[in-house]
């Protein structure tokens, strides 16, 4: 600990390195961790330095490593951490590492691109599957509503013939697509379609029959009204185009239903849209198409995976029914604007079923391919994960070495690099040894091998004298590093100044314990901070907490305090029974505090003596001590006297101190 | 006075953040270093040591100016949104007002793209990210202004500004510019009124800034309309009324037919006279440059006062100017045309 009382003696050294050997030397010095280099060219910009290209290459490698890390984390592949600390590879190996990383990155990007396009296909097929399913539901729903007989009422003219029609229609609707085709020989799926539309519309008109408001002028209309208006207009269109379906006999109905003669065809577009965009989509549809379209929607229960980002999103299926080409182009534009994906949905039930089956088979095939791709990717990542940590360390070290080399001056003939560094005088031997071994040992089996044999001049280390203030360097170990950090937080000591840390190792936990003073909690602290055999290297605060806990146990016993309960373990140390106002703890802390302060002033004295600054001794130390002793020293004397002179009996009549 | 002592309750943290961001704005030495760069890679390396940090670190492939611009804007957006999501009350509304000007620019950009039959995706990529709104992508269904309003803009915050623009004409080049200026006029006047409503230091600071913006637009509209078919009455309708030129100066500007007459109008106001004169340094600054410089001065001054919302507005404007500067330098560097590389507008010392 005597070593810790003052900072280490430092010396400025000049380093002459041969250009070929420079990398290896700096690497060795880096591993040693005993020198601090000075920047000899502080005015140059980052991109004007000598080794800026190598640093750029390192940055590029780090970018690739970060990309790999991100992908590995995405797949939750565990990264191997053996606790190894590899040395920096030499520049030749750096090229190999670069090539390796490049290859890995390209492979990974390819696999990702493949996977994304496969997932996109998969998404499209899944959405199509959902559409086919939901449109089936749409049509079935209208069948149920239709059973209510709303069709007849809405269309005005009643009559048994109509009733018969209804039952026919009903039958045809229930009986999927086939029977419909039988009942109306000319019809195709479109016929069915028209029936559906009209039934939907009419049912809804019926349901909103109360709302018979005429369409409002442009401007703010609520959504509630919008539907009835939409339907009203649609119905007007329906009836206007030739009496609609409200004719009296089947022939007229059929004709109207065929629609061919009157250009009376409904079309639809089916697609999938993000759920959150649906309300705005609906609103815009209504506004742009003046309410002449009909939208039906249904949520997709399962969240789908977005191929680009990998997030799960909730979508909904929608169908828009409209009439005419102009509306069709408008609806398409709106769908494009809201990034809805449109899918071709066949009209008839049979076609839809066929399509659904083929979609299912394609989905299954795609699934297998997707699984193989995902496997391949995982294998790639696992092999990368084994080396990832080592690569990070290696690249980090290379970068640090080049940053350091950038601080050197290049000799005019550019064969020699000159650098300046601070180091502790005691370490000079170790540094010399490291430099020699890194530069001249030929046969080392490590990376330094043949390169080194070529260098003829060993690196030179000269001590330099300088008037600059050297840096402050403390040799700390696991125990003292935490305390040194605390002391540094108040201010780093200047060169060779007295260091409070050796004292703080004891006084800091002690003062903590005087305030904490609980046996139980202190024991817990102590146990928690004990070094574990199998645990990872601890934090710097471990030994601080250990000591604080230990001291707290001691004071807890003195205070008779366990987990905030008083316990009588040792019996009373007082020979006098009876109450008396006892402020000893406060008084004791005052005494302790004053002792500490005087101690601090005396340590300051050692600083003055070390610097042979006798003026300060007379001008600073003596007045400080006098002032302190005059005020607080007197107080301490009184306290001690009071403890001694007044016993338990007559403490009540003891005079007060303050 | 009391309102200012309560300012920090809701907005104190955000003001602190905003001043922190302002402290990271590039200084003269940074610009000096940037002008020394030989390639875009050097630029990236230097920017790493500023507040921008490693914003380009994960860019694969060779750097281009457009990539840099995109990332710069992205950083601004992230910072702005960070502030915006934590803002409440008047401040939230104030920050929304800041975004409306970008919305106007985006709407006009998309409209002109439609006019030239550009694909919608390309136009969307060029939109300013601070002015996005939900219905933006569906804008291409509109062929007349009425449709534009009814279908797209009616739900956006720009709806009230559109009242003057609605007519049955089809959209063409001239109309789009008129739309832009009409929208902007309504927006500026609305913003000014809102700031007056907030009162206090905010009103004071923003009054100055917005007045200059209004006057600058009046000058630019006048000068740019010489030689076009824009009539004087139409021109007058485009002048924002919240500047120092209102009402007398605007009257005179409306009658002006050449730059000399505009200069005469500017002579009545000390700061504007200086801008129209030749400043004798021999440097070839355009009028727009001088306007930018004055704007920067006003915005930096806004930070001299405390407890007002103007710092947020000024921060956005200053960051924007910084982005323009960096892109200017980047263009000069990448095209190796270093003659005018010093023509950026310095912001802070």
Short description:
Chain A has 658 residues and is an alpha+beta fold. Chain A is built from 21 helices and 13 strands.
Write the layout of secondary structure elements.
The complex is a heterodimer of chains A (658) and B (349).
Chain A: H1 2-5, E1 10-18, H2 22-32, E2 35-37, H3 52-74, H4 91-146, H5 150-154, H6 160-174, H7 178-183, H8 189-207, H9 223-240, H10 250-258, E3 267-274, H11 278-288, E4 294-299, E5 304-305, E6 312-313, E7 315-322, H12 325-337, E8 341-343, H13 349-406, E9 409-410, E10 416-424, H14 428-440, H15 449-453, E11 460-464, H16 478-490, H17 501-516, H18 519-529, H19 542-559, E12 561-562, E13 565-566, H20 584-610, H21 614-645
Antiparallel strand pairs in A: 1-10, 1-11, 2-10, 3-7, 3-8, 4-7, 5-6, 9-10, 12-13
Helix pairs in contact in A: 2-13, 2-14, 3-4, 3-13, 4-8, 4-13, 8-9, 11-12, 16-17, 17-19, 18-19, 20-21
Chain B: H1 2-5, H2 7-23, H3 28-35, H4 40-47, H5 65-85, H6 89-115, H7 120-126, H8 145-152, H9 173-198, H10 200-225, H11 232-237, H12 248-255, H13 259-267, H14 270-276, H15 287-302, H16 310-335
Helix pairs in contact in B: 2-16, 5-16, 6-7, 6-9, 9-10, 10-15, 15-16
Count of runs of 4 or more consecutive helical residues of chain B: 16
Provide the CATH architecture of the largest domain in chain A. Answer: 2-Layer Sandwich
Sequence stretches where pLDDT stays below 50 over 5 or more residues of chain A: 148-193, 202-232, 234-263, 442-454
Low-confidence stretches of chain B: none
- Total strand count of chain B, please? 0
Structural class of chain B: mainly alpha
Please state the average pLDDT score of chain B: 87
Gross geometry of chain B: globular
**Major beta sheet summary of chain B:** none
| Beta-strand content estimate of chain B | under 5%
Most extensive protein-chain contact, per-chain counts: A-B, 25 and 27 residues
Largest sheet of chain A: 5 strands, antiparallel
Radius of gyration of chain B: 21 Å
Compute the gyration radius of chain A: what is it? 44 Å
Helix fraction bin of chain B: 55-70%
SSE sequence of chain B, one letter per element: HHHHHHHHHHHHHHHH
């Amino acid at each position: 600990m005597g070593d810790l009382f003052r900072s280490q003696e430092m010396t400025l050294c000049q380093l002459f390195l041969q250009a070929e050997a420079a990398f290896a030397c700096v690497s060795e010095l880096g591993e040693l961790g005993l020198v601090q280099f000075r920047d000899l060219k502080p005015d140059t910009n980052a991109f004007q330095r000598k080794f800026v290209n190598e640093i750029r290459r390192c940055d590029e490698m780090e970018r690739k490593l970060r990309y790999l890390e991100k992908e590995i984390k995405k797949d939750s592949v565990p990264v191997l951490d053996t606790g190894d600390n590899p040395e920096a590879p030499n520049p030749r190996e750096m090229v190999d590492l670069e090539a390796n990383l490049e290859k890995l990155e390209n492979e990974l990007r390819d696999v990702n691109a493949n996977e994304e396009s496969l997932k996109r296909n998969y998404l499209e097929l899944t959405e199509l599957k959902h559409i086919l399913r939901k449109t089936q539901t749409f049509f079935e729903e209208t069948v149920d509503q239709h059973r209510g007989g709303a069709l007849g009422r809405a269309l005005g003219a009643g009559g048994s013939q109509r009733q018969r029609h209804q039952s026919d229609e009903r039958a045809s609707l229930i009986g999927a697509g086939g029977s419909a085709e039988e009942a109306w020989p000319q019809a195709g799926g479109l016929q069915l379609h028209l029936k559906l539309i009209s039934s939907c519309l009419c049912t809804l008109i019926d349901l909103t029959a109360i709302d018979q408001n005429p369409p409002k002028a442009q401007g703010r209309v609520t959504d509630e009204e919008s539907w009835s208006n939409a339907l009203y207009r649609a119905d007007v269109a329906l009836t206007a185009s030739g009496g609609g379906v409200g004719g009296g006999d089947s022939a007229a109905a059929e004709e109207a239903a065929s629609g061919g003669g009157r250009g009376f065809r409904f079309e639809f577009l089916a697609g999938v849209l993000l759920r959150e965009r649906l309300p705005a989509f609906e609103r815009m549809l209504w506004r742009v198409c003046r309410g002449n379209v009909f939208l039906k929607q249904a949520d997709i229960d399962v969240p789908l995976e977005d191929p680009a980002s990998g997030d799960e999103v909730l979508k909904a299926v929608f169908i828009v029914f409209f009439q005419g080409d102009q509306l069709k182009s408008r609806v398409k534009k709106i769908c494009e604007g809201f990034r809805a994906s449109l899918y071709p949905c066949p009209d008839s039930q049979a076609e839809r079923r066929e399509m659904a089956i083929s979609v299912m088979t394609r989905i299954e095939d795609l699934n297998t391919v997707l699984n193989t791709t995902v496997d391949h990717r995982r294998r790639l990542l696992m092999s990368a994960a084994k080396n990832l940590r080592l690569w990070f360390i290696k690249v980090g070290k290379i970068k640090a070495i080049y940053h350091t080399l950038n601080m050197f001056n290049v000799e005019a003939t550019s064969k020699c690099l000159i650098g300046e560094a601070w180091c502790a005088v005691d370490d000079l031997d170790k540094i010399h040894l490291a430099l020699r071994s890194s530069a001249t040992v030929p046969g080392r089996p490590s990376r330094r091998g043949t390169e080194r044999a070529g260098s003829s001049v060993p690196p030179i280390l000269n001590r330099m004298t300088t008037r600059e203030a050297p840096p402050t360097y403390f040799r700390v170990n696991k125990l003292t590093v935490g305390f040194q950090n605390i002391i540094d937080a108040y201010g780093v000591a200047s060169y060779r100044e007295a260091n409070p840390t050796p004292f703080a190792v004891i006084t800091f936990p002690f003062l903590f314990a005087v305030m904490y003073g609980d046996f139980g909690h202190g024991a817990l602290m102590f146990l928690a901070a004990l070094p574990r055999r199998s645990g990872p290297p601890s934090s710097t605060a471990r030994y601080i907490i250990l000591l604080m806990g230990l001291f707290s146990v001691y004071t807890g016993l003195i205070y008779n305090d366990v987990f905030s309960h008083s316990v009588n373990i040792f019996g009373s140390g007082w020979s006098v029974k009876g109450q008396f106002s006892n402020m000893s703890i406060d008084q004791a802390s005052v005494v302790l505090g004053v002792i500490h302060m005087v101690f601090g002033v005396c340590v300051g004295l050692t600083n003055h003596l070390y610097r042979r600054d006798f003026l300060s001794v007379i001008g600073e130390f003596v007045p400080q001590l006098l002032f302190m002793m005059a005020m607080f020293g007197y107080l301490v004397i009184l306290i001690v006297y009071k403890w001694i002179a007044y016993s338990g009996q007559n403490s009540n009549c003891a005079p007060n101190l303050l | 006075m009391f309102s200012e002592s309560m300012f920090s309750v809701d907005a104190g943290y955000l003001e602190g953040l905003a001043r922190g961001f302002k402290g990271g704005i590039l200084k003269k030495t940074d610009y000096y270093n940037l002008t020394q760069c030989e390639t875009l890679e050097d630029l990236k390396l230097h920017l790493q040591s500023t507040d921008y940090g490693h914003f380009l670190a994960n860019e694969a492939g060779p750097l281009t100016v457009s990539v840099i611009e995109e990332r710069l804007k992205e950083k601004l957006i992230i910072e702005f949104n960070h502030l915006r999501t934590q803002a409440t009350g008047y401040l939230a509304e104030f920050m929304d007002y800041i975004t409306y000007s970008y919305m106007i620019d985006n709407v006009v950009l998309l409209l002109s793209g439609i006019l030239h039959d550009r694909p919608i995706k390309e136009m969307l990529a060029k939109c300013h990210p601070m002015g996005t709104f939900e219905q933006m992508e569906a804008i291409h269904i509109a062929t007349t202004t009425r449709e534009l309003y009814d279908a797209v803009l009616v739900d956006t915050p720009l709806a009230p500004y559109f009242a003057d623009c609605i007519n049955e004409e089809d959209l063409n080049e001239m109309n789009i510019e008129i739309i832009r200026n009409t929208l902007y006029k309504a927006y500026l006047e609305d913003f000014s009124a809102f700031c007056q409503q907030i009162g206090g230091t905010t009103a004071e600071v923003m009054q100055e800034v917005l007045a200059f913006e209004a006057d600058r637009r009046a000058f630019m509209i006048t000068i740019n309309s010489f030689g076009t078919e824009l009539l004087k009455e139409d021109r007058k309708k485009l002048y924002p009324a919240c500047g120092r030129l209102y009402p007398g100066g605007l009257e005179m500007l409306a009658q002006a037919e050449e730059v000399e007459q505009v200069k005469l109008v500017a002579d009545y106001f000390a700061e504007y006279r200086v801008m129209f004169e030749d400043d004798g340094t021999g440097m070839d600054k355009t009028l727009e440059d001088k306007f930018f410089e004055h704007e920067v001065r006003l915005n930096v001054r806004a930070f001299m006062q405390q407890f007002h919302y103007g710092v947020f507005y000024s921060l956005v404007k200053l960051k924007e100017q910084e982005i323009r500067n960096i892109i200017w330098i980047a263009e000069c560097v990448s095209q190796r045309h270093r003659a005018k590389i010093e023509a950026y507008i310095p912001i802070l010392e």
